[in-house]
Amino acid sequence: MAGGTKRLPRAVREQQMLDAAVEVFSEKGFHETSMDAIAARASISKPMLYLYYGSKDELFAACIGREGQRFVEALAPAGDPNLPPRAQLRVALESFLGFVDEHRHSWMVLYRQALAQQAFANQVRSSRDRLIELTAHLLESSTRDPEPDMDFTIMAVALVGAGEAVADRIAGGEIDVAKAADLLENLAWRGLAGRRRTDTPG
Amino acid sequence: MAGGTKRLPRAVREQQMLDAAVEVFSEKGFHETSMDAIAARASISKPMLYLYYGSKDELFAACIGREGQRFVEALAPAGDPNLPPRAQLRVALESFLGFVDEHRHSWMVLYRQALAQQAFANQVRSSRDRLIELTAHLLESSTRDPEPDMDFTIMAVALVGAGEAVADRIAGGEIDVAKAADLLENLAWRGLAGRRRTDTPG
Amino acid sequence: MAGGTKRLPRAVREQQMLDAAVEVFSEKGFHETSMDAIAARASISKPMLYLYYGSKDELFAACIGREGQRFVEALAPAGDPNLPPRAQLRVALESFLGFVDEHRHSWMVLYRQALAQQAFANQVRSSRDRLIELTAHLLESSTRDPEPDMDFTIMAVALVGAGEAVADRIAGGEIDVAKAADLLENLAWRGLAGRRRTDTPG
Amino acid sequence: MAGGTKRLPRAVREQQMLDAAVEVFSEKGFHETSMDAIAARASISKPMLYLYYGSKDELFAACIGREGQRFVEALAPAGDPNLPPRAQLRVALESFLGFVDEHRHSWMVLYRQALAQQAFANQVRSSRDRLIELTAHLLESSTRDPEPDMDFTIMAVALVGAGEAVADRIAGGEIDVAKAADLLENLAWRGLAGRRRTDTPG
DNA sequence: AATGAATGAGTTTTCATTCAT
DNA sequence: AATGAATGAAAACTCATTCAT
User: Fold this and answer.
1) Interface touch B158/A162, C-beta < 8 Å
2) Other C-beta atoms lying within 10 Å of the C-beta of residue D48
3) Residue B156 near residue B139 (C-beta atoms within 8 A)
4) Dist CA C163 CA A128 (whole Å)
5) CATH hierarchy code of domain C2-54
């Protein structure tokens, strides 16, 4: 009823299906979600789903793919090489948290659901690894006198982990983006104890 | 085959079953794990599993229960009120990471699997929330001049998130505990950029 | 094998399934009947059964529902208000016994199986109670000088009980409908000892 | 706990078990009753049940056997050949209904449960057939001028059916024995319409 | 005599997936 | 392009029944 029964161009149908799939997956989780439920949410028949996406796994992969793509695009501004590293991190944080804030379903599907699924964890993990590498580079290039043994990758792991935890709270509507970005930025540069507001040079 | 097939006292069998269940759950995930698989791993029959634990959900809950208990016990030393807050955090970090290092299955089941399961997520989340509260208190009581707007809870969220991310790497065997503890401690007190070795007061 | 395996419209399949279910339930009883057996008898797959009826209980309820409906319809002619009460009872008896004679499976499922199943007994019992009330009214309105303490409900209980017992014999093919109707009618009006043929006013 | 754990002579244990079995069977029905439940009710272990009765079926058969025996014994007074036939029927009715009134569990197990169980129905049916034959003889020998085509067996079927229906109401506590016996006796001799109190010759 | 421990064999139920139209 | 109809395969769960002590 909701989605009409007309013949639609392929591209539109695809998005319609992915929209429905992302919604249901993020609400119920991968396993609790049946193809029936997705078809119903998209107001189409199950065979269409199979015609377009072949299998539940492929459909889920397509979800991760599209949402991941959007995620990457949202982070693109942070890659501006004209910005100094610290500004890049700041932009990255805001982009990241802002994306989660505006696309909670994406976040749930991308991270929380996908990581829990053996079959898809790697797909997400490797994306995350790239993010971590990027963060590590940012950290390194903005550190004035890096000590020889500093392992920026682990630092990045920790920072990204912190970011994910904070993102969960944003997705849960518990805190707001600006506050979270400040916190994480301070965490990165000064640690928790030395926390200051970004705009308050200390 | 693997384990004896003879009659064992109830308490022993219970542990045998939980051991097997934790293993398989942590390897395959909750949904991919069948009761058959657990029974086979424990070298017992499926009905025994049901006789002892009633249902798959209850069995999983029992796993979370036992592993969570162990986890809490592992963190107990950090609660020593004679220690100064910073030492408490240090001990907590080492206990936490050490536990994950030695009980990878526990970690996987406790956090990664349980959080992914709608039905059990809250059980774990509320434990985590307590850990976060505790951490928040530690942070607050070891901060000399807390600014009025400092939200220690969010800081703790971030720090615990960082800890979990690092724990995952430890569980994956990628880094070692001491290094990780140093990193997180520094992260807490000085931020990533100001990182120093713990034993090098700076 | 027995029935076609091709695609049939929903309504047809529904009847096919109910036919098979009524048969097997009446032959083997509720508990001894497996969904596999019904699916096999209907020459369809088990999932179809669940697709159409949801569960074994619902399927059984649907059987009771359909057969009960037929039963009620078979008794409808007796409700003709133009008939005098005694004729109504006569018609009711013939309708009832005629129905059992022609639908032995229905009778078995409706009464003998359903009454034996805790979960469905009430459904049947309440129908039977209505039948008893009706019979009680018929008895009362055709009794010339009802004594004040006459409990027509209990009489109706007895008469309906007699009818059911006789119906069982009819279902077993041991006696024929006309004879049984005569007997019950005489039982109602004159008792066993004073039995006369209906068409032989005495 | 309730039944003690002492070593008891065989005969006592047997009765203990049958008591428990009859109770549970009559409450829950044959299939809904598990051997566990019976063992628990009898406060003994399951293997004992099997030691004494071999299988669930045998146990149920033993229940029917004992209760049937008691039932027959309760009806014995009606067999007194010194009584005139009508008095025999009266006594039989009172014995029968009195038995049901005092042993509701027996009645439920004997009739309602056993008849519903394919495997035991015949055992009960043949007992019932004997009762019907007996009743038929009583009817015949107390009828002054039997018409040649009178089928006393069917009459007896109807009368016994009526008796069973009324017995169910007695077991349900809805009516009392004396009233029911009057009704059935009148039903037998005079039909419902000509009902009179037994002690009021009409 | 008595039982805690253990299981084989089956049941209902659920999906992802595919035809036939 | 689109779908109602249909199913194979597997999962959770139960229970009568039997050892080993």
Assistant:
1) yes
2) 14
3) yes
4) 78
5) 1.10.10.60
- Between CA A42 and C1' F13 the distance (Å) reads 34
Residue B146 beta carbon within 7 A of nucleic strand F:
no
Residue A200 pLDDT exceeds 50: no
Give B47's Cβ-side CA count (13 Å radius): 0
Are D156 and D132 in contact, with CB atoms under 8 Å apart? yes
Q: pLDDT tens digits for C124-178?
A: 998 899 999 988 988 888 777 767 666 889 999 999 999 999 999 999 999 999 9
Which pLDDT does position B103 carry in this prediction? 95
Q: What pLDDT, on the 0 to 100 scale, is given for residue A149?
A: 62
The fold for domain D65-193 equals Tetracycline Repressor; domain 2 (1.10.357)
Q: Calculate ∠ Cα D64-D67-D68, nearest 5°.
A: 75
- CB–CB contact C158 D28 (8 Å): no
Any chains having at least 3 CB pairs less than 8 A from chain D are C
CA C99 to each of CA C103, C104, C140: distance values in angstroms, whole numbers, following the listed order: 6, 8, 25
pLDDT (0 to 100) of residue C5: 52
Contact B161 A166 (CB under 8 A): yes
Domain boundaries, chain A: 2-54, 65-193
What's the pLDDT score for residue D151? 83
Question: Residue D145 pLDDT more than 80?
Answer: no
Single-letter residue type at C137: H
Tell me the shortest Cα–Cα distance from D50 to chain C, in angstroms. 22
Residue scoring higher pLDDT (C112 or B146): C112
Which residues make Cβ contacts (< 8 Å) with residue B141, sequence separation at least 6?
A: B85
User: How far off is chain B from A122, nearest CA to CA, in Å?
Assistant: 13
CA dist C163 and C183 (Å) reads 10
Give me the total of CB pairs closer than 8 Å, taking one residue from chain A and one from chain B: 139
Chain A residues within 8 A of B157 when measuring between CB atoms: 165-166, 169
How far apart are the C-alpha atoms of C8 and C21, rounded to whole Å?
18
Contact A142, B137 (CB under 8 A): no
Note the strand F nucleotides within 7 A of protein beta carbons.
Answer: 1-21
Q: Is the pLDDT of residue D59 over 90?
A: yes
Give the DSSP letter string of chain D.
-TT------HHHHHHHHHHHHHHHHHHH-TTT--HHHHHHHHTS-HHHHHHHHSSHHHHHHHHHHHHHHHHHHHHGGGG-TTS-HHHHHHHHHHHHHHHHHH-HHHHIIIIIIHHHSHHHHHHHHHHHHHHHHHHHHHHHHT-SS--TT--HHHHHHHHHHHHHHHHHHHHTTSS-HHHHHHHHHHHHHHTTTT---TTS--
Question: Percent of chain A having pLDDT more than 90?
Answer: 52
Chains B and A touch (3+ CB pairs under 8 A): yes
Chain A adjacent subunits, 3+ CB pairs under 8 A? B
**pLDDT at position A161 over 60:** yes
Reported residue count of chain D is 202
Q: Report chain D's mean pLDDT, rounded to a whole number.
A: 86
CA distance D66 to A156: 80
Helix axes A152-171, A177-190, angle to 10 degrees: 160
Indicate yes or no: CB of D161 within 8 angstroms of CB of C164.
yes
Average pLDDT over chain C reads 87
pLDDT tens digits for range C48-103: 999 999 999 999 999 999 999 999 999 999 888 899 988 998 999 999 999 999 99
Are C159 and D162 a contacting pair at CB < 8 A?
Answer: yes
- CB environment C53-84: b (16+ within 10 A), e (fewer): beebeebbbbbbebbbeebeebbeebeeeeee
